[in-house]
Amino acid sequence: MIQRHETQQQFEESGANLFVGNIEQCPISPQQLALTTRDSPYVVQTFNSGLTAEVYRIRFNGKDYTLKKKRSVARVQNPDGRFSFLNEVQRRSDFQKLKDDPQTSEAFRCIVETIYADYRLGIILSDWIEGDSVKQLTPLLLSQLFSTLNACEKVGLFEWDLSSGNLLVDRHQKLWLFDFGYMYRFDPLTEFNSNGIDTPLFQFCERFETRFLSGWLLEQDYSHRQSLALFRHVKQAAVDILEDKILWLQRNRADHAILYYTEQLRAQYLTALESEEALEDLFTLEMFRSNVLDIEDDLDGKSCTPTTIKRVDTVLEMVEKFYTLLKEQGALFFHNEGKSKAQLIESYQNKLSLVKQYQLSLNGA
Ligand SMILES: Nc1ncnc2c1ncn2[C@@H]1O[C@H](COP(=O)(O)OP(=O)(O)OP(=O)(O)O)[C@@H](O)[C@H]1O
Ligand SMILES: [Mg+2]
User: Fold this and answer.
1) What pLDDT digit, counting tens, does each position of 16-38 carry?
2) Distance between CA atoms of 98 and 177, rounded to whole angstroms?
3) Residues around the ion ligand 2 (C-beta < 5 A)
4) Which of 128, 165, 210, 217 could form a disulfide with 290 if both were Cys (CB 3.0 to 4.6 A apart)?
């Protein structure tokens, strides 16, 4: 068991509780909130798609709130899934301190306000955000997202799950983050992410491309040219953040390896921004990597969707078309390392049948 799971397991078994926020702000008692079902008279809307929680939009005296309620049995059985509700309450606790402190509140303005949370009761009560999923990837949106992630990383929080269901945009084009089930602690001066120094490949821009952009592009009807134009915006926004991150790492005497890696990343993105050809190549490499990674995530959680099928089809096409580039540029990593073209094709054909087998039934219990 990894350290984080061990600590969370101990907390779970200790019977200790964790509270966030102010009980006085609850419109009804926390005990009553915990008994909420989709049939409660104050429930306006139910979001039943969550793997570890159910989410309700509730209304009291004309004011809307969001109630996230822990499921008694999580639909994901791996340890990250089993502890994700506890993890979220832990992050809400971290964030509320940062949001309440005038020194840091501005940097965390895109993080939802937690009104009250009680881990043992299994409830998190937040502001209701009147918004919509991301419909347009604008430079403003990307800059809000990446600067929020940068602020999170500076305080030692690494977000893994930037999927489209975890991002909302309100009518002022303000971005909101509200699901922290897969955001973990790390030391930004000595570690790349919450895996320590083992997997530098995982970083904020990669997470966005893996959990959001690569799937989003598969679902939109964009031409290749339009996709590339968006990709350019993403890398431009990332470069701006990397500049700031590098200065911060220098000022805070980060380990050489961390600083070096971050500088290399900025240089790689800058090169891609300088020529169409380099941008094309980076696009191929990043989309291949992101699809490969997301397929594994979905298989691991046995939580595959029709998009997962599209991802495997895309990977198979890319291997067919770009095998040499992928091999030479280091895109064959982890389980793909050292594989020939034929071996890769065989492996992803096998994954295709697994992905079809593990389709989440969205209406099932
Ligand atoms: N504060 C909020 N304001 C408005 N809508 C929200 C808010 N919190 C959540 N939602 C809506 O509820 C959906 C599910 O919420 P959330 O992502 O927190 O949980 P989940 O992903 O369903 O659960 P799990 O973490 O178990 O996978 C979101 O996609 C969003 O549409
Ligand atoms: Mg979510």
Assistant:
1) 999 999 999 999 999 999 999 99
2) 15
3) 165-166, 179
4) 210
Which among 91, 78, 89 is positioned nearest to 2, based on CA atoms? 78
Say if residue 189 is in the same domain as residue 320. Answer: no
How many A from CA of 292 to the centre of ligand 2? Answer: 21
**CA distance linking residue 113 with residue 116, whole number of Å:** 9
User: 326 C-alpha to center of ligand 1: Å?
Assistant: 36
- 141 and 253 belong to one structural domain: yes
Task: Give Cβ neighbours of residue 118 (< 8 Å, ≥ 6 apart).
Answer: 17, 18, 19, 30, 34
* Those residues with Cβ within 8 angstroms of residue 349's Cβ, 6 or more apart along the chain or in another chain: 316
Residue nearest to atom 27 of ligand 1 (CA): 50
Q: What is the CATH number of the domain that holds 134?
A: 1.10.510
The ligand 1 atom at the shortest distance from the C-alpha of residue 84 is 25
The span from the CA of 347 to the CA of 335, in Å, is 10
pLDDT band (50, 70, 90) for residue 78: confident
> Is the domain of 83 the same as that of 45?
yes
For ligand 1, is residue 165 a contact (CB within 6 Å)? yes
Check if 33 has its Cβ closer than 6 Å to any atom of ligand 1.
Answer: no
Domain boundaries, position 318: 283-365
